[in-house]
Amino acid sequence: MTPQTWDAELYDARHSFVTGYGAALLDLLDAAPGERVLDAGCGTGEHVAQLAAAGVDAVGVDASPAMVRRAAARFPGIRVSVADLRDLPFREEFDAVLSNAVLHWVPEAGRAAACLYSALRPGGRLVAEFGGAGNVSAIDTAARALRAGHGLPEAASPWYFPTVAGYARVLEDAGFEVRAAWLFDRPTRLTGADGLAVWVRMFAPHLLAGVGDPDTFLAELGERLRATLYRDGSWWADYRRLRVVAVRPPR
Ligand code: BEZ
């Protein structure tokens, strides 16, 4: 995973939609009490806590020590630890793996898929959602055009936003049987008049690399995007999700 550093409290305060939208994913997972479930990229622990409260034997891992510390502080007693999705220590231990809004931070998709496969027992399932092809393209395109206008170099992207076909191939190459995969638009409300600027600072700092005056840059970005992403008194990020259900075939 990218060596992204997170402000875990800001993440909860301003970006709780990340876990909020995950509720649909939990429904899709449909974990039964007693099942062993890994939350791969557990963030601040909400889903691990919800699963544990429902009697599921839930374990969370996240690459960010700050997120794991906050998860443990918010939900004492849940099992969470620091681990990289490209190098998980689990072997055939879980009935299911859940992953929400994380895999787009792992460009080494084949390595991550192989780790998720290894973590599952034969017959176990993967239910995942993350940014798919075209995700946040309005924000990304406008910020890149603005950078070019300021004479700044191309910013390398830390994101991986695959198509349905591209990610199905990644999963199949890792040994999974893909049961379903779909791509859908999910405009996502960013709270506050500064919602867009807060989002860029938190999730897209690469787009600010080398920018002398980030406040002015972000104000200009807002002007460029207002017509497309500001409506009903709020900023809306042009999120596009890729959701997948896949199974590690039984032996
Ligand atoms: C997403 O959840 O789609 C996302 C979050 C941060 C950066 C890029 C995408």
TrEMBL record:
Gene Ontology molecular function terms on file: S-adenosylmethionine-dependent methyltransferase activity
GO biological process annotation, one example: methylation
Xref: CDD domains: AdoMet_MTases
Gene3D superfamilies referenced in this protein's UniProt entry, alphabetically: Vaccinia Virus protein VP39
Classification via Pfam families: Methyltransf_11 (PF08241)
Methyltransferase type domain sequence ranges: 38-127
Keywords carried by this UniProt record: Methyltransferase, Transferase
Protein name: Methyltransferase type 11
Organism from which the protein derives: Thermobifida cellulosilytica TB100
Organismal lineage: Bacteria, Bacillati, Actinomycetota, Actinomycetes, Streptosporangiales
